[in-house]
Amino acid sequence: MARPLHYPAGAGQRLLSVQEIRKEVAVSTPIIELRGLTKRYGDFLAVDGLDLTIRKGEVFGLLGPNGAGKSTTILMMLGLTEPSSGSVEVCGIDATVNPIEVKRRVGYLPDDIGFYESYNGMDNLLYTARLNRIPEDEAVARAQRLLSRVGLAGEAAKKTGKYSRGMRQRLGLADVLIKNPEVIILDEPTLGIDPQGVREFLELIVRLSREEGITVLLSSHHLHQVQQVCDRVGIFVGGKLLADGDIPTLSAQLFANEAFKITIRVKFSEGKQDTEKQRLMQVVQSVEGVTSVQFDQDDIHISCYKDATPHVARAVIENGFDLIHLNHKEHGLDEIYHRYFEGGKADGKTK
């Protein structure tokens, strides 16, 4: 176990271990930086002045409808197409000036990866290893480990022409990992995969990021999938990045002027409901931040100008009430996305 660093900590704080501090430093280190990135095709503006920083070791979701400019942005990150203006750095390397070096450090999985269908899974991985000049013994060891990691160890000898769509995508993930990349970019990787396969694929992505420190850029139009696995998201519409951040931060910014909603339910003493309801209302109304309290049969609906959930719960319990249910409304990624997409905040970029 790592020895804690010895430095003063405030009340209620704990000392961080060396490993935790290293992780904090790594996470704060930019690994992809886009500055004013713009791409025009004639008169068509595909990507419009994109500014974005993705940090080392995080899973970042680039979220937007088809045609938003996500794939064009990825192509510029990989040095496969040049920007009209602006800059893109990946792993500290200018992708426009030195695209080959970027490709050595980045693995890219498109929505439909191609394999030699007459080759089996192992042979396809070894072919990729040879292209990356990995020594044969090391390539075999890596391929075996990766096939096991993605759940294809038992299918390694099967020709890829007989693989299902989900198996092909898992093999594709092994394929991009065989060169030990610092970053993997996944462009709509779950298209055409059954729900169970999607769950397994997303869980695998999270494990790779957490256990091996790989930075993941996941481009998708599936809101639920992005919300499941991503540390932060960027909302991309019409070639513009309208917002980026984690979901709680985006929610707080976007819905700052809307009341927090809390619903509670308590078990009243038999024959004392009326008096206890009156006392409960007084207790809840006394909590800082509460603006209104309404009873609806068994439920009590509470509106607040800030999130007072823990304070409401504490006040109810400390005043002797039997709290049996508590729920507070959280704005999910679908609400955040649709608010931006419908133009609620599209005039200005939120950070």
UniProtKB/TrEMBL annotation:
SUPFAM superfamilies: P-loop containing nucleoside triphosphate hydrolases (SSF52540). PROSITE patterns: ABC_TRANSPORTER_2. Keywords: ATP-binding, Nucleotide-binding, Transport. Residues 32-263 form the ABC transporter domain. Belongs to the ABC transporter superfamily. PANTHER family: ABC TRANSPORTER, ATP-BINDING PROTEIN. This is ABC transporter ATP-binding protein.
